[in-house]
Write a structure and sequence with these properties.
By secondary structure, this protein is α/β, with parallel strands linked by helices. Helices cover 31% and strands 25% of the residues. The protein has a nine-stranded mixed beta sheet with strand order 16-13-12-11-7-10-9-8-17. A six-stranded parallel beta sheet has the order 3-2-1-4-5-6, sandwiched between helices. Strands 14-15 form a two-stranded antiparallel ribbon. α4 packs parallel to α5 and α7 packs across α9. The two termini are 45 Å apart.
């Protein structure tokens, strides 16, 4: 029978709840306790989730029943909480962004190695259905050679009124959503990333980026645009992939809300389209008899893969599904993007 591991959560806000909720469904990891610096959050942990609440973080680290600490606090305290847990002999799951910068992350990775303990970052959006669908389309070469990918998340509320508004807590949209979308990009494209150009927006927030656009150019010339916006009252498609022979789109959050449109053969005669002030052949759409509309491929939903992998790593039967080297690459990419935004020019990456 497989060993069952015990986890305890530090930081019992939105994401702490989510871990606790998901772990209720895991047959390999039990969530047994929590600790938050705010008393009302501890009450929720005890009363709604039936968790043991620790007096403080040290109390949690001293509990011999705990195998895994899950760090779900604001970003500025990840480094110290993770390092303390590793040094106390615990394995660690840490929320994204794992750290404020690559210097902190290098120190965390070094400490994990020295202590012989697991440090795994919750880059959970590697298993998002929409991402897996687009990755499948990219890998299948169904669209012919892909030359451009656009990936967006758009909201219209600015940055919510909490620590995400303040740089000293690790706020801003690069560290919040950029980290997911850039991670997905590096997981999808197995090439060297040569150039990065980034702009940041400050529409509703003066001190933290409330929007980002990162344009990455890969070795083959493929251009990949990542955009996070918080003042987008009309959102643009979440995925848009352009190949020589076709286009794929996912429009919103629903993974199946999209399609593939592909060429079925030679273009034939182009029917001009009437524009405001004249006609154009160049911008005319394809005739219906030269294209086909295809549904998006289906992919496995992959629920629970992350925690199962954590348990398998601790059993010694699997490698980390999220390697710390891959997380460090994303952290360095975000730093390159910040540098580009500051210089207002493209910067070399790899
Ligand atoms: P939150 O503000 O809802 O919760 C954070 C909690 O941490 C608060 O209750 C706060 O009181 C507590 N806290 C702060 N400092 C602490 C300390 N030193 N010790 C103990 N508790 C402390 O924030 P959130 O939305 O839950 O985000 C928490 C982390 O999870 C962030 O790193 C965020 O980026 C990440 N997150 C990840 C995802 C994902 O999909 N992977 C989604 C949301 C948030």
């Amino acid at each position: 029978m497989s060993k069952i591991y015990n986890a305890a959560i530090v930081g019992f806000g939105g994401q702490g709840h989510w871990h606790s909720f998901l772990l209720n469904k895991s047959d390999r990891i039990n969530c047994i306790g929590a600790y938050d610096i705010r008393a009302e959050r501890n009450e929720v942990a005890a009363n709604e989730y039936n968790l043991h609440v620790y007096n403080d973080y040290e109390d949690m680290l001293n509990d011999e029943k705990v195998d895994i600490i899950i760090v779900a606090t604001p970003n500025d305290v990840h480094h110290d909480l993770v390092v303390d847990a590793l040094k106390a002999g615990k394995n660690v799951i840490c929320e994204k962004p794992v750290a404020m910068n690559s210097i902190e992350l290098e120190d965390m990775i070094k400490t994990a190695k020295e202590c012989g303990k697991m440090l795994m970052v919750n880059q959970n959006r590697r298993w998002d259905e929409d991402f897996l669908i687009m990755k499948e389309i990219y890998q299948s070469a169904d669209l012919g050679p892909v030359h451009r990918i656009e990936r967006r998340v758009h909201g219209a509320h600015g940055i919510p009124g909490d620590w995400r508004q303040y740089p000293e807590y690790g706020g801003g949209m690069m560290l919040d959503w950029g980290v997911h979308l850039l991670d997905q990009m590096l997981q999808m494209i197995p090439e060297k990333l040569k150039k990065v150009y980034c702009t940041l927006s400050y529409v509703t927030n003066e001190r933290c980026d409330d929007g980002i656009t990162v344009i990455s150019t890969f070795e083959s010339g493929l251009v990949y645009v990542v955009e996070v916006g918080t003042s987008n009252f009309i959102p643009l498609p979440s995925w848009y992939m352009l190949g020589r022979d076709g286009t794929a789109i996912i429009r919103g959050w629903g993974a199946q809300d999209g399609e593939i449109v592909k060429s079925t053969g030679p273009d034939g005669e182009v029917v001009p389209v009437l524009t405001a002030n004249g006609i154009t052949k160049t911008m005319a759409p394809r005739r219906d008899d030269t294209i086909e509309h295809k549904p998006l491929p289906t992919v496995d939903k992959c629920y629970g893969v992350f925690y199962k992998n954590v348990a398998d790593v601790l059993d010694g039967t699997a490698e980390q599904a999220i390697s710390n080297e891959s997380v460090l690459r994303v952290m360095r990419l975000m730093e390159a993007a910040f540098k580009s935004a500051k210089l207002n020019e493209a910067v070399d990456f790899e």
